[in-house]
Design brief:
Elements lengths: L1 E9 L3 H8 L2 H7 L6 E5 L10 E8 L2 E13 L3 E8 L4 E11 L2 E11 L3 H35 L5
Antiparallel strand pairs: 1-7, 2-3, 3-4, 4-5, 5-6, 6-7
Length: 156
């Protein structure tokens, strides 16, 4: 199983960062480069525990679909989603939020396993882990920018 661990410090309240991290519309904006759109389940707004969303996106030159479900949520501290259907053999994404002195540390723990045994593991090591780290980092940067702009009443 491959693991990506990311942390980012955001100058905003945990509740605001938490809500932005589960905002379907902001997610689509952050993934415009991969043409990611919602095609099923929760179509917009804030996804909640036990809800699903199905995404269609172009990754590595191929259109793919991914259905995820929020399996746990403790507002505004954490939520976890897992893959129900998609190209991975398995996928689990924990989103953790810790507020200290008005700032929020947002942590992503993204675990995934590719199909195809040793070939999948080699693909993860050579390419996929780096690709997904960049994908998640770009998304987190938009969450940070949006949360900090909202805190400062800036137009984004």
């Amino acid at each position: 199983m491959a693991l990506i661990y990311l942390e980012i410090l955001i100058d905003a309240r945990a509740q605001d960062v938490f809500d932005l991290a589960r905002d379907i519309d902001l997610h689509q904006k952050s993934t415009a480069r991969s043409h990611e759109t919602v095609i099923g389940g929760r179509m917009s707004g804030l996804i909640e525990e036990n809800e699903t969303v199905t995404w269609r996106a172009k990754h590595l030159g191929i259109y793919q679909t991914l259905t995820t479900k929020i399996i746990s949520m403790e507002k505004p501290l954490q939520f976890t989603d897992i893959m129900l259907k998609g190209a991975f053999k398995s996928m689990r994404h924990q989103h953790i939020f810790k507020e200290t002195e008005g700032k929020t540390k947002m942590t992503d723990v993204f675990e995934f396993e590719s199909p195809l045994g040793i070939i999948g593991k080699l693909f993860n090591a050579v390419f996929l882990t780096r690709y997904l780290r960049i994908f998640l980092t770009e998304r987190n940067q938009l969450i940070k920018m949006t949360a900090e702009a909202l805190k400062n009443n800036d137009v984004i």
